[in-house]
Every structure is written in C-alpha cells, then in structure tokens.
Specification:
Length: 165
Amino acid sequence: MFAHMTNGTAEFLQKIIDKHPKKHISLMHGESSSLAYYEDKAKSIFNSGREYVILITIGAIQEEGYVVMNNIPVTEEGQPVFEHHFQNRKHEVEKMPGFQAFRLLKPKKGNTYIVFTQWRSVQDFENWKTSDQFKQAHKNPSVKTPDYYADRPFITSYHMVTDEK
C-alpha cells in the first residue's frame, strides 16, 4: 500500500479532489499550505506529489482531527536500523486518549521518512507530548541525534478539513 500526498492552495487541491470522487482524499490545512493525502495500491493521481510505502499502519485515518508529521531524513545505510527501531517499538502512543491513527511512511524517492500521527485535537497531541509514555518512548541516553539521521528532523502539522468547513 502507498501513501500519496501533494501540497498546494486549498482551492487547487479541492479541484483535484472533485476530479477524483472515487478516491478517498483527505484535505488538510497547515500554517503555510494545504495538503491532499490518500492511500491506495495504484499509481498516484498527483502530477507533482510525493509517494511513500506504508511500512506500519495503526488505526484508520479519520475525517476530522489534527495530523502531526515528523519528517526524518535518514541515510541510506541507516534505513534498516531506523525501520527496525519502529518495528520493535512499544505501542504506547496508541493507548493515549485522542489517538486516531499512525503511519510509518518510507519515501519512494529521497530519504525523508514520515512518522504520521493523527489526533482528535491539538490538545490530545499536547497531552501526549507531556505524558510519561512520550518520555519513555523518546528517552535517549545521548543528546546527540542518531548517526543514521541525514539531517535534522522537522515537524509539519495540519488540521483535517471536512466538507462542512
């Protein structure tokens, strides 16, 4: 299964969504742009989108919610270690109130993985970040970033847009 996404203005992305009514495309608004996202086994409908292999799927993506994407550039030789880390992680985030969905996305081109989480609200995500479970999941005896990081990770976040909004 693949994840497909592209950025643009809300109006432009809505035209793409309207043109493909059989695809379940989610529209999300962020601080600087909007994002269209869908999952499918077929080739992407986006001309200038990004494609990812979905390595881990937990929960169904909901029509409403808050999406946080941790974008992590990983060196080519570090990819097996990075993927192994996620395959063997404890599943604490799924137990948090407000958790909706999780995806680990491996890029088909490039080196930036996406750790995608969806929450019922911003407050639910903030509660996760201050929880003991978060501290346990992110504890690291070293302050240094892992050697397999190709660059500094960065976060993008979006609010899901429903037809009524």
